[in-house]
Amino acid sequence: MPVTRRQVLRYRVHAQQLDRAERAGRSPDDAAILDLGVQDTGPDGSLWALAVRGVPVTARDWPRELALAWTVRGAPHAYRRADLRAVEKALRPYSETDAAKRVITAAAPLADAGIPVLDALATVSRTMREVVDEPLVKGELSTRMTAEVGEPYVRWCAGCRATHMYEMTFRLAALHAGLELEPGTSPPVLRRIPRWPAGQVGVLDRPTEGDDGRLDLVRGLLHLLGPTTPRQAAVYLDSTVRDVTARWPDDAVEVEVDGVRASMLDADLAALEDPPDEPVVRLLGPYDLYLQSRDRNLVVPDKAHHKALWPTIGRPGGVLVDGDVVGTWRPRAKASTLALELDPWVPWSATTRDAVEVEHARLARFRGVTPA
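Below the sequence we write its predicted structure tokens.
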């Protein structure tokens, strides 16, 4: 089935609820992207990603319905607090090979010591649970864990000029230990998740059949960032193409996006035919899910703009207009005012400029300041 780039981008806008207006009284955990996890990186983090999807949240108050944890790619992500136990199960590696891919450089010393990565993650998780009997700042926890586990779980870090645990093992073990991140802390503080089952600490076993239901990561990517490919999904998850392909849903169907083959869920095909009522304009955060797809040439066809939108350090946000990223933005805060530094990639119409001003005011309200 042939599909155009325009159809795909408009589909993603709708699937991710970027076309949804804010509604008073909507629950803070009422957002489809929470099924996949909302990355909490950048000045406004996960709450702004929810705000631009019509969720009535602000930067000043972390909703009790949400929780933060280190998960996909070791990055902090927001989830529904009620989902945390199921999220932990969905985040368990698909295989030993998958686990080795996720911990990156930590895999080699474990292999040399004859320790499977899955066993290592279980050991670190159980130890971490015992150590965090009260909220601990990351540095203090790292110091205690380094003393507890020793070789081959630790390494000399030239940047820190100290010996400490491999970072990805440390981060990925935390949720399996029943630990969450305390919102608004820098450096991050870890604490125990209330009423976490003791029998779930350090358990990395997976069911041999079936998916993870509503929180299945592969299905979530196909729905929210579809059409996609196993390779693109594997890159997003820090997994292996083989493991992702093995979990590819039976109801995924192949389409051709401007001649390139990819897949999406069969139930989502009908949404490709429904254009939005009017163009959607949003100020997307630097790590918004819409900008996290691994088909960057589809999202931004002009490769000259890739370095501007996705630099290695210091990403800007993206200005979204009817599915297209038409420029970047950076916040410029001073006292109680917020200005925006805008970089339009193409000439903006007066309608677009007016809409960007509306979103600027929205961001200022979110931060509790005045637009400048």
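Residues 281-371 form one domain.
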